[in-house]
Amino acid sequence: MEPFTLTPACKDYLWGGRRLKDDWGMRTDLETVAESWELSAHPAGDGVVADGPWAGRPFSEAVREHPEIVSRRHGPDDPFPLLVKLIDARLPLSVQVHPDDAYAARVEHGPGKTEMWLVLDHEPGAFLYVGFERELTREELERRIGDGSLTDVLHRVEVRKGDRFFIPAGTIHAIGGGILIAEVQQSSDLTYRVFDYGRTGPDGKPRPLHVEKALDVVCLGPASPAVPGARPPRPVPGGTLECLAGCPHFRVELLELDGRWERAADGSTFHSLLCLEGEATLRAEAAVLSARKGASLFVPADAGPFVLEGAARFLITSLGGQG
């Protein structure tokens, strides 16, 4: 199958803003956009194929009917494994944690959630929480959740543009207000919320917490600042390429394109290309696609080699264990 463009599923949560509409050109009837699910076959937010023979059909249908577009090992009954988002946190997100695969399979009958973040922009002084400042006991954590002092023991990081964070399942975390992030994660919508600043949902009631499950899965110490698989930028024909993260679930690269860059393909993985800045053209055997800021291109695993030409930044996501 030839490469195609994806139309994202947009989400409006109480902490979202307008940057994805005003600055990134997201077309939606929503007043605010907290998240745009740029690469997703998840039932809670399925993307739509925007061009080519599959235009107008859900991305999940293409994956189900043509599993070879994911990888040569992907089967028709296998769920699409990854999800790529843009997140506009006008207000802070809840303090939360995600389960690993074993717990999620046993308790939730689905995959767990490991993720990574790339900070695209932020307001002055914006910060996030990742892990704890020190080791805690389960009893102390439960007490602090109950008395509202949880943030006193969370590790706070003031962010800078270009920062990247790896959030393994079990790591307590929260994105602060005023931050724009690109997130790559396992295709899971499982979130165990433990603190939400006393906010209420659209129904006027406090949003639910998931304290017992969170206590079952949370890692009770500081998070490692290391990002697995990260490699410094290296020159390549047509620009520079940096590996931001590489783990069993995903590989994430950042391409600074200034010219012509080509990637070979062997059928082992798809490539998701999210344009973060600039303009470029993708060419494959029988497809030509244009991309500008906010565009999400999907190159099937069986599409063969492809070329990008232009001046742009791309977040490139593929299956883990590649290269």
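The record above closes out task 2.4. Task 2.5 opens with a second protein, given below.
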Amino acid sequence: MQNAQLLSHVDTDLVTREQLALVETPAATRSFKPVPHVELVNTLEHVLQLNHITIRKEQFALRRDGSTLFGVLQLAYQDTTDGMAALGIRTANNRTMSIQLCAGLSVFVCDNMVFRGDLIALNRKHTAGLHLRTEINHAILRFQDHFGRLTGEIANLKERPVSDTDAKAVLHDVFVKGILPIRLLPEASHLYFEPFVDEFKPRTAWSLHNAFTAVAKEMPITTRMPAIQELGRYFGMTNGIQD
């Protein structure tokens, strides 16, 4: 799913949203308020739609006892063509896990409890005072604020020209720092300096970033996601390329 990755392999099965609706939910107690998995997903979609955000693709994995849900959503604002982002979901109705949402340009969710994104937008226990709609509203506001900053950084990278000398310096820096394995250096250099797709042709910081993320797809998912996040920090926070 491009920027949203879900791995299901430990006592879980991939399921559809329709199948989630068939899962029985435990009864509530005075201190514990389980939330039906399908209600969580449907409420999340409703709040996203109110904020003009569309679910482009979705994927879910369910523990075989029905207790625990993992999921990823690939998103886009309805009025943009390239504003892709993602949400990760995990929750359990057996008191072992709170309702959690992670967000970012890329997210990775695995049933072995790996839960990775740029931002933890929600982490709410199933207490008696839980108001699901309110909590998700707050989470989406956090997501929008974070996504707005990310898209601003991307716009800046697209407008930032890079000389060949600076590009070579950044290529050297990224691999020497160990952000990506050195074996990917030749391919990253080739993608940037001899581009064969339009998105790599402008000599900008965004094209260089795309060259790195393209070769990172050859890495295992468990190391790819941390590497992509580290690349984001390098380009966005350390300003490794000077204007």
